[in-house]
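[Discussion] Sanity-checking designs against the backbone

I'm trying to build intuition for which residues belong where. Below is a structure token string of 503 positions. I'd appreciate it if someone posts a full sequence so I can compare it with mine line by line.
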């Protein structure tokens, strides 16, 4: 990642010693690793007496170290004198300790800085003068670990190439915002907090009670920018809503003669008597198909999909999409999937085009765009359509069920794979023209109202058209360029500036 200059470094605490207590060894090691991923030097110690030696080893003064210690150690004085003492509540996952460090650095930076900025607390009263922006993030631990491991969630303020210094801090959705550090920006992965059967539209998952409570609290804090607005992120959870947004791509003029579009699709019950008629009307009567649940995330079944070589083989899916993790996504256990027509599952039935087994994964941070290539579903064969009397075994031979969260099927059974072309050899991926890619990203950014998102493009082997086959909010940005961390910090600062301007 691109190194960003630490802001106000002389005044900040960037070194933490965690004193071990009985029965908490694993928790302390996990907290130390979490701090290290966030750019804070951390170590564990058995006794307070080890603190001076650790400070000397690090080349810092005792006053530049924070100690996470039980109250008994803090009361004992001795080697802890001169170091900042923070308390880690018993039984917590370390979020409270990291928040205490953020609060400490806010106070120290404010005292050390001659430039004092104003901010408001949760109750509207003047809060500690601010010298850097604080971004609170809400996401599941595994996502935090992945992003922080790439340097995207620094716990210490970093000054990007443009704008104010920015630091990140985890939020505890189980506690009121008023009991946590004063935020300038909320960064969230709301789909981590979807609950199945919670009353969403058509049985779709809805926000958890913890996230709904957070939204209510944010409504009382208009000065806090939210990246991204919850109503905008909801558009990529529902594949029907997303398809409506993507339908506008076909009218988008792109430089270089590039044509982009969404895959043709229908939303229908897999057991509907008029399914074939609807496929014919949508131009899907003679192509391979991908079948996806309506809900894009938040359910175990959300990523259970099927590749179908011929539309008539859809009859094999009338019992529902198989959840590749061991359950059924059909009407018997759909967990929030609409049903209709003979009780069969309602799904998105989408055009599949041969694209050389290559997918372009584009990542967007505000107006910055980059992409990576990934192996995708190989080109498929075009077998004869099964007749009306075809048995279940024959239909199943034209269907491949898979879990897209685990992996796309980058190898196909021999009878499903397209035969190799004569003289064809593996060719390196062709780069996507950047002006066209940026134009597609800008269109989606406007249409979705999102700052952070990713989208997947495949290039049709027959026509050269770009098909945008998926969009997701706040991707992992894995493999991004060195500037990725700076781009994310700049996006947070820009969101804060827009919010203050509106206020």
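Best answer:
Here's mine. Compare freely.
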């Amino acid at each position: 990642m691109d190194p960003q200059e630490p802001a106000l470094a002389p005044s900040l605490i960037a070194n933490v010693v965690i004193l071990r207590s009985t029965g908490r060894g694993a928790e302390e090691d996990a907290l130390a690793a979490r701090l290290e991923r966030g750019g804070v030097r951390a170590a564990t110690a058995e006794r307070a007496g080890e603190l001076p030696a650790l400070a000397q080893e690090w080349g810092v003064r005792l006053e530049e170290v924070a100690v996470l210690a039980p109250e008994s150690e803090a009361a004992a004085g001795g080697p802890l004198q001169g170091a900042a003492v923070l308390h880690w509540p018993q039984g917590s996952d370390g979020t409270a300790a990291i928040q205490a460090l953020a609060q400490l650095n806010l106070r120290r930076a404010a005292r050390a800085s001659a430039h004092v900025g104003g901010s408001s607390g949760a109750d509207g009263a003047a809060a500690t003068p601010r010298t850097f922006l604080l971004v609170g993030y809400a996401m599941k631990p595994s996502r935090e670990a992945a992003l922080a491991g790439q340097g995207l969630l620094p716990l210490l303020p970093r000054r990007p190439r443009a704008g104010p210094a920015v630091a990140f801090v985890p939020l505890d959705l189980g506690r009121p915002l008023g009991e946590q550090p004063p935020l300038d920006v909320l960064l969230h992965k709301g789909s981590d907090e979807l609950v199945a059967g919670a009353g969403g539209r058509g049985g779709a998952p809805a926000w958890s009670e913890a996230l709904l409570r957070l939204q209510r609290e944010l409504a009382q804090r208009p000065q806090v920018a939210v990246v991204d607005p919850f109503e905008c992120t909801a558009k990529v959870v529902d594949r029907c809503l997303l398809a409506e947004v993507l339908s506008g791509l076909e009218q988008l003029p792109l430089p270089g003669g590039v044509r982009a579009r969404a895959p043709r699709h229908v939303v229908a019950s897999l057991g509907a008597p008029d399914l074939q008629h609807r496929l014919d009307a949508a131009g899907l009567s003679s192509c391979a198909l991908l079948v996806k649940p309506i809900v894009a995330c938040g359910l175990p079944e959300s990523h259970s999909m099927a590749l179908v070589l011929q539309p008539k083989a859809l009859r094999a899916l009338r019992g529902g999409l198989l959840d590749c993790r061991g359950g059924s996504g059909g009407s018997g256990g759909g967990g929030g999937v609409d049903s209709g027509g003979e009780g069969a599952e309602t799904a998105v039935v989408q055009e599949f085009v041969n694209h050389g087994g290559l997918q372009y994964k584009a990542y967007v941070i505000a107006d910055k765009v980059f992409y990576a290539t990934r192996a995708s579903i190989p080109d498929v064969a075009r077998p004869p359509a099964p007749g009306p009397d075809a048995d279940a075994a024959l239909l199943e031979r034209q269907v491949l069920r898979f879990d897209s969260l685990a992996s796309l099927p980058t190898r196909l059974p021999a009878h499903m794979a397209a035969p190799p072309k004569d003289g064809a050899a593996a060719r390196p991926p062709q780069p996507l023209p950047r002006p066209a890619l940026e134009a597609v990203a800008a269109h989606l950014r406007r249409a979705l109202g999102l700052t952070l998102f990713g989208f997947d493009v495949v290039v049709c082997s027959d026509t050269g058209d770009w098909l945008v086959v998926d969009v997701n909010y706040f991707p992992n940005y894995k493999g991004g360029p060195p500037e990725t961390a700076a781009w994310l910090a700049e996006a947070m600062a820009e969101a804060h500036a827009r919010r203050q301007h509106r206020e």
